[in-house]
Design brief:
Length: about 250
């Protein structure tokens, strides 16, 4: 009896780990280095607040005050804000293992989101409400799971001026999109239920003083652009790189 061949699956896992790892490394490095001007971030925050007031969307103070008045919801909100990366990784692994037919699409969308948002962070640094709006309580810093004050330390090497768009909402939107793509044909109700996650995350980032309403709108636009970019990637770039494509084109 011949042994099952495991080389190809192992190689595929290693390739995916390298691709995702490189994407995370590039995103983290560039994100930490761009759009770090506190002056520009404060000016952009004031401009955004003015637009929101004109549109009657300035709900950040009232949302933050509401959460302060409901202490039983504070820890769940902090858990959701701090541990959403677990959901992101879990969805990525789940799609890879259980729905490999759609995995390339959702992974390309994820990478596209990471690449598309970096120029925005460079061009439009934005102070979050917890820095830019007097009276906002920094919920996450006050009730951090690990007792950290990193969200207040402007010299810790992190980029604190990347409020636009909200990637907490952006990554949660990607999670919902990935589940929807994987399940819409076989489990349409479960596929729709996945969109509750970004709705919850929207409530979390607004009430904890970390993002504006228009940051959330920017996240929706980012996902739409990333889906379009991944579609172009799949239709035009992947066929050109696929083994044997050039030879087939020459033969034709």
């Amino acid at each position: 009896m011949s042994r099952p061949r495991v080389g190809a699956p192992v190689r595929r896992v290693l390739v995916e780990v390298v691709i995702v790892g490189l994407a995370v490394l590039v995103f983290s490095s560039v994100h930490a280095a761009v759009g770090t001007s506190a002056t520009a971030a404060a000016a952009n925050a004031r401009a955004l607040q003015a637009v929101q007031r004109a549109l009657h969307l300035d709900v950040e103070r009232s949302a933050n005050a509401w959460l302060v008045e409901h202490p039983a919801l504070i820890q769940p909100a902090v858990y959701c804000y701090r541990l959403y990366y677990a959901a992101l990784l879990g969805v990525l692994v789940w799609v890879f293992v259980r729905h490999c037919e759609v995995y390339p699409t959702v992974r390309r969308t994820l990478v596209a989101m990471a690449l598309l948002v970096l120029p925005v962070y460079w061009a439009v640094p934005m102070s979050p409400p917890r820095f830019a709006m007097p009276g906002i309580v920094d919920i996450v810093a006050e009730h951090d799971l690990f007792g950290s004050q990193a969200s207040r330390d402007l010299g810790n090497g992190q980029n604190h001026f990347s409020a636009m768009p909200s990637m907490h909402v952006g990554w949660s939107l990607w999670c919902a999109y990935a589940v929807w793509v994987a399940l819409r044909a076989t489990h349409p109700r479960a596929a729709l239920l996945a969109w509750v996650f970004p709705l919850v995350m929207t409530a979390v980032v607004l009430t904890t003083g970390n993002h504006y309403v228009l940051d959330v709108a920017g996240s929706v636009v980012l996902l739409a652009l990333a889906v379009g970019a991944a579609s172009v990637w799949s239709r035009w770039l992947v066929p050109r790189w696929a083994p044997g494509t050039r030879a087939a084109q020459r033969a034709g």
